[in-house]
Amino acid sequence: SNTWYYSVKSAKYRQSTTTGADDYLFMPAFNLKGGNSYELSFDGYNTSSSYTNLIEVVIASSPEAEAATAVTDTPISFANDSRSVTNEKVTVKPEADGKYYIGFHIVSAQRQGTFTIDNVVLSAGKSTAVPAAADMFDVTPGASGALNACIAITAPSLTAAGEQLGQEELSFTVLRGETEIHSGTIAPGADTAINDENIAGSGIYTYTVCFANSEGTGETAETTVFVGTDTPAAPSDVILTDCNDGRGLVSWTASGEGINGGYVDEANVIYTVISATRNEIIKTGIKGTSAEIPVTQEGTQTIYSVKVAAAYTDNATATASNEILAGMPYAMPYAESFAGAAASTSPWIKETVSGKSYDTSWAARAEYTYDNDGGAADMTAYSAASSR
Predict the structure, then answer these.
(1) Short-list 49, 40, 53, CA closest to 12
(2) Model pLDDT, residue 8
(3) Is pTM, for the whole model, over 0.70?
(4) Residue 44 to residues 74, 104, 123, 197: CA-CA distances in angstroms?
């Protein structure tokens, strides 16, 4: 087994290699008030995302394991590393006034690396008799890109402690960002609908609503939506087909939604076909989901592919197609001897069917020439051992 320690301005637990983890880390004592709720916030992460560490938040009358009672119904699971720090929030509700120790109990399996806790914050207390968050809070953007939204709300019927609210009317406020949309009063559990008609432009908006009674302001409900006309997302299923007559047919599937999940004005979407290798526009101003483009049958054979972009203008993020082989076919009989350690014809394509691409090589080289012309093709085969 192991124990918690302090390092680099954070608390850490180094893995146990013999048994599962079972150790407590207690915060300093706090004077807490019964009937109030306190929000505990903290960051957690592992040395590797391949590990999973489990944390119980506990409360105790003394900094001892025997006095600790779990606040969380089940342990909080962390399967992330420092590149994606997870922030957790836990509500602590003491039963009576007194001095309490809030702690972290690690209960991970053995050999789960080092776990770190950082940025621990305990909020000021507030009465648990305040209203809970809204029973229902839904925001629907205006149809067809309209700059309005319909807000549907069901007022809470319970307090933050889970008790039934009385008959007292609740005051409530709805915000879009920092802008107040509506304020008024409502009975516990009642429904209401509010129209937001004064949205300046298309974009992502966060709406919040909170309720208050004589005990204070309750918990906030929040939702985020895109309102207005969104930027088209790139199409999918881009396919390039050689018609074998100097033409290529490019087809694709329209995304049907914007890059933010919002409404797209499909009637005004312009598609642009771009060369994937040269990044040059081949054809633009396309309406629909297919287009013909020129594909040369002359000259040296080459690999050819395109990208298709969708936008209300000519510039947008594009989706690449498959590759096809274009150019003049070689006459038969065909021969390639790699004279002078170089290919006289192209393209020669290497495809790695299994293993890693760096495990194989295929190149013209001067050694081991069979016909004494200074060149041969040399292949180093895939090695199963080197790919592990």
Answers:
(1) 53
(2) 85
(3) no
(4) 16, 11, 18, 42
